[in-house]
From TrEMBL:
Pfam families referenced in this protein's UniProt entry, alphabetically: Rx_N
SUPFAM superfamilies named in the record: P-loop containing nucleoside triphosphate hydrolases (SSF52540)
The Disease resistance N-terminal domain, residue ranges: 9-92
Domain of life according to the entry: Eukaryota
Keyword tags: Leucine-rich repeat, Nucleotide-binding, Plant defense, Repeat
Molecular function per GO: ADP binding
UniProt similarity note: Belongs to the disease resistance NB-LRR family.
Species name: Oryza brachyantha
Descriptive protein name: Disease resistance N-terminal domain-containing protein
Biological process per Gene Ontology, one example term: defense response
Length: 499
């Protein structure tokens, strides 16, 4: 009898185990199928976006819809890569747990902990599957709603250029500002009303290093604008007190079009705001000199009141678009899907960067030059350590610090894994050759064993798009190094927020 019951129990147990295994395999197959469907839908959306970017769209509603479609594509790719990243992290944790825990005894507390962890893991998997199904449904509905949009897009003329989304060309094009560029161009080409008095003014507002000057340069290079205007630029130090004589002496002619002598476009770049008295004097000086349009750029929201139309506000890229851009720069012509471990490390690095354009180009170039998982992981650990130390001592993320023109910060060097306290000053130059000081590149400091003098300049990044600036930083070492600096209010460690 005991033998019979043992055989029955054994058969039931084996059937139960087989059922659980089959069910798990079916669920995994469903997840893989949904991921493949999600990827195919994203490819369709990407094809639509690339086709729209090759068209000269002038309708503002169409541009707004294109912006929504592009944001949907970024969100979908971010979700897909984040989902794969969590799977890789879970597998890595399982391997560590399997090699570190002794589960020979059913009464082992580690086994009970493992069982509870497995329960939590099952709950997380169910939640993630629901998220995957929801994202897939949202994207499929978005594609079905794009039919009219695709028809309207095909009616616009093509722009003679290469598609910007190519892995090899993305870093040579302005990313994420297509709708803003068309809005500025539409403002410039819109004729003045015959009864209107004064000059049309468009304020462009945004924090430092967000891309205001790059946007204006791309607008000024557009053939539609160059056919219509002679373009004059005034920097922050060239407007004087608003006197026309100073304006005439300090203005830089960016483009002279003999056929458009009656139409002048004036670009005025401000660091902060401008008082009303100076602004009135500038308008009085420019009025009557064939100036029909003015573009004001500044970091201050106060200049919005100086415009005759709604101000254009620029902000840093959302995390989904930032991830799409950084992944493209870091992998170059390599397909990230062929390197899932590198893609997982890359996603953690993106979380650390907090949307910094400059760090994106600097670190993306370094990673692309050495596509090794070991190098990328070691670089991630050093980046976390440096960032946490910066937050702990100075109370702010390094990317926020570098949005100011000068201040106090740390630089991390590969030499003896040192973190050095420095005072910095940021500037732009058309040439990467400082007059007196020794110059390094950011890649030299982060990856090579270099000895830094007391004062030195660093070429952070040399832009390959207009205005083709070399972004430089001047550093001076501080006598009091990190362990002697006064501690400010401690912020939450960045590593706590990593995916």
């Amino acid at each position: 009898m005991e033998t019979f019951f043992s055989a029955v129990l054994g058969d039931l147990l084996s059937r139960s185990i087989s059922f659980v295994i089959d069910r798990y395999q079916r669920q995994q197959q469903d997840v893989e199928e949904n991921l493949q469907r999600l990827h195919r839908v994203l490819l369709r959306i990407q094809a639509i976006v690339e086709e729209a970017d090759e068209r000269r769209i002038t309708n503002q509603a169409m541009l707004l819809q294109l912006r929504v479609v592009r944001a949907t594509m970024y969100r979908g790719y971010y979700f897909l890569d984040s989902f794969r990243h969590r799977v890789i992290q879970a597998h890595a944790q399982d391997e560590v747990r399997d090699h570190s825990l002794d589960l020979s005894s059913p009464f082992n507390p580690s086994k009970r902990f493992c069982s509870s962890s497995a329960t939590r893991k099952t709950v997380c998997e169910v939640s993630e599957k629901k998220e995957l199904q929801k994202m897939l449904g949202d994207l499929e509905r978005a594609v079905s709603d794009m039919q009219e949009f695709v028809v309207f897009v095909s009616s616009y003329p093509r722009v003679i250029r290469q598609p910007y989304c190519s892995y090899l060309l993305l870093q040579n094009c302005m990313f994420g500002r297509q709708a803003e560029q068309e809005r500025v161009i539409n403002f410039l080409l819109q004729p003045q009303h015959p009864c209107a008095r004064g000059i049309d003014v468009l304020p462009i507002i945004g924090p430092g290093r967000v891309g205001k000057r790059t946007l204006v340069e791309h607008v000024c290079h557009d053939e539609r604008v160059r056919k219509y205007f002679t373009i004059v630029f005034y920097g922050p130090d060239s407007i004087g007190g608003g006197d026309m004589e100073l304006l005439a002496d300090n203005g830089v002619i960016k483009h002279r079009n003999p056929a458009s002598t009656e139409q002048l476009l004036v670009i005025i770049e401000l660091v902060n705001d401008m008082d009303d008295k100076t602004w009135r004097r500038i308008l009085h000086s420019l009025r009557g000199n064939h100036v029909s349009k003015i573009i004001l750029t500044s970091r201050s929201n106060k200049i919005a009141t100086l415009g005759t139309t709604e101000a254009l506000h620029l902000d840093f890229l959302p995390r989904e678009a930032f991830w799409y851009f950084f992944k493209t720069i870091a992998f170059g012509s390599t397909n990230p899907e062929d390197e899932p471990m590198l893609a997982s490390i890359c996603m953690e690095i993106v979380t650390v960067l907090k949307g910094s354009f400059m760090a994106l180009h600097i670190l993306g170039g370094i990673l692309r030059s050495n596509p090794s998982a070991q190098f990328w992981y070691r670089f991630l650990k050093c980046l976390k350590y440096y960032t946490d130390k910066h937050i702990y001592v100075l109370g702010e993320h390094p990317s926020y610090a570098y949005r100011k023109r000068n201040g106090l910060t740390f630089i991390w060097t590969s030499q003896n894994q040192r973190v050095i306290a420095v005072r910095y000053s940021i500037y732009q130059s058309s040439s990467a050759r400082p007059a007196d000081l020794r110059m390094f590149t950011s890649s030299d400091i982060l990856t090579r064993n270099v000895e830094l003098p007391e004062k030195f300049d660093v070429l952070d990044w040399q832009s390959s798009i207009p205005p083709y600036y070399c972004y430089m930083t001047h550093y001076e070492k501080l006598a009091r190094q990190p362990h002697m600096l006064p501690k400010r209010k401690r912020s939450r460690l960045l590593s706590e927020g990593l995916v």
